[in-house]
Amino acid sequence: MSALLATEDLDVSLLRPNFVSRLLNPWPRKLFNILEGVTLFVLPGETLGLVGESGSGKTTLARTMLGLTRHSAGRITFEGREVRTPADFRALRRQSAMMFQDPTGSLSPRLRVGTLLAEPFTIRRMAVGDRSALVRSMLAQVGLPESVAQLYPHELSGGQARRVGVARALALRPRLLLADEPTAGLDVSVQGEVLNLIADLRREHGFAAIIITHNLSMIRHVSDRLAIMYLGRLVETGPTAEVFKRPLHPYTATLIRSEPVPDPRRKRTELAIRGEIPSIFSRPAGCEFHARCPFAQPRCRAEAPAYQAVAPGRNVRCHYPMEIEQQERDAAIPAPINRRGSSNEVEHRQA
Amino acid sequence: MSASLAVRDLSVRYQTPRGEVHALRHVDLDAEPGQVIGIVGESGCGKSTFVSALANLLPPNAMVEGAIGYGGTDLVGLDPCRRRMLQGNEIALVSQDPMTAFNPVLTVGDQLVDFQHHRSDLGRAEKRRRIAAMLERVGISDPERRMNSYPHELSGGMRQRVAIAAALLTDPGLLIADEPTTALDVTMEAQIVHLLAELRREYNGIIVLVSHHLGVIAELCDRVYVMYGGEVLEAGDVEEIFDRPRHPYTRALLACDPARFDERLERLPTIPGAPPNLIDPPPGCSFAARCSRVFAPCHTTHPAAKVLPTGHVARCHAVVL
Predict the structure, then answer these.
(1) For A118-156, b where at least 16 C-beta lie within 10 A, e where not — what string?
(2) Which of B187, B278, B292 to mutate to test the interface with A (most CBs of A within 10 A)?
(3) Any chain B CB within 8 A of the CB of A147?
(4) Domain span at residue B12?
(5) Which residues form the ABC transporter domain (chain A) (predicted)?
(6) Contact A273 B191 (CB under 8 A)
């Protein structure tokens, strides 16, 4: 199957925001890559999870895919055709939709929900016929009562605001939905409702979805494939179940182990990851993850690893991907507590 | 100083133009020094009202009834001046958003000096030494340099560490952490949870931890209070709550957590319906409208809190002793 949307070696650069150095030395300007060499695709009808810490470039990538941020190198293709000019991006945005991070903040505070729901049609200058009937059907689709149409965004609860966001995003029947942190700040039950709603509508209308999140326990249930980002680069991609079962990049493994488990008998004593994500303006030399990596070798400090395919559908950016054969051997031995999957590899690799 | 906490029949009502909101109803809570108390529940269930009542941060339109006994003194009945004196020394709060907890135009070092204003016996240099030691203890490297940073220069995880250091500087007997990891990434959350787990070993006061993240509660707490609609529906030791939940709401809440399932689920479990309106709370059980085990008395009679032999407390008609 050919990709719906794909990026090849995508870079996004910014000028270093240092006023003084620009004043003293206006040329040549120093560029800093926010995203670097991102090669990613999403298939028609599939759900891709985009995972990483704050500052890893997830939102920038989503914005770049829709042309809201300009890329400085690389290619974006939609259904095999390159998207380059502003007109191309307008056509792409007509077929795709973005749910922004802040559900209430992305709704104009001065408009009622009814007006907000009809807005996509107004912007595209599409005839809607009976507007109130349209609004009613959109509200019904996302499970909101009709009375919500009369409310202002500040009167909505977090879950209701997300539902309005879903209805707006799907109003024009997009081929692709980009949802930026669709469940941030929601209660666990409401989170389930919003994700089930997106999944139901996806089954009905068959659009592809990219879900940006740092919530691993949620994304493993809703995505087909995962892409893990670190400091503006992809570090691992693969089918969700396989990534959770056998993470190849040490960063993925530590992310999975960082998730607290709702079981009082499994209190962790070891900390999975130390330190913080480095600044994009001072990228570490070599592998960017080496300072936080429990397995870093001298080579990792000197030489940046390539993003390579190691198994069908699985790519990883690591000199020493956690060996697949090793993990398969471990999986064959029933470990007493190996719920999170990666405790064995850690010991073997250190040995 | 370490003292025990005994909250008895605490109710909070807010006067609003739309009517009286019963934000907190008849809450009982006990804690001994050294214990970590977890408070869990959905948004709008009264968690924040409860910790605000403990920390004396309720808005002026709040009316408080009942008693908050701390070391034998009832904080509710205390005159405001004495309550502030006691609270400043004894009760510290770590809030959800570490950005707004600090003054943006002062360095964190200056602010942490100000937090120690009650220690008139210490000079400024001595206070700065205490700060440096405390920042080191919460895992901030190069504390001398960090003290000269402004809050915006610190990352979210580091700000939360500074907020915890600030709370511990007053040597409080009661440390309240209101959603301390909600605004953080999973890696920073793991680090803050790890820090709190380390601190609780040496800290001999009470920690009250509010979170809607069940994993965090399971990892850190000794005793858990499950809140819903302004009430405590179930309370018990952490193993009891997670392994043998008695109240249907606790069961539903635990079942909703996607972290409990390793295999992919086609549909995520949810609790149908919405929490009750607290302006006109239902006469019966507050969870009756969403409960799967509802029967006749649930809609009409308010269930009493039943104490089970295991020390478990459940407010449900379906629970039999």
Answers:
(1) bebbeeeeeeeeeeeebbeebbebbebeeebbeeebeeb
(2) B187
(3) no
(4) 5-90+172-315
(5) 15-256
(6) yes
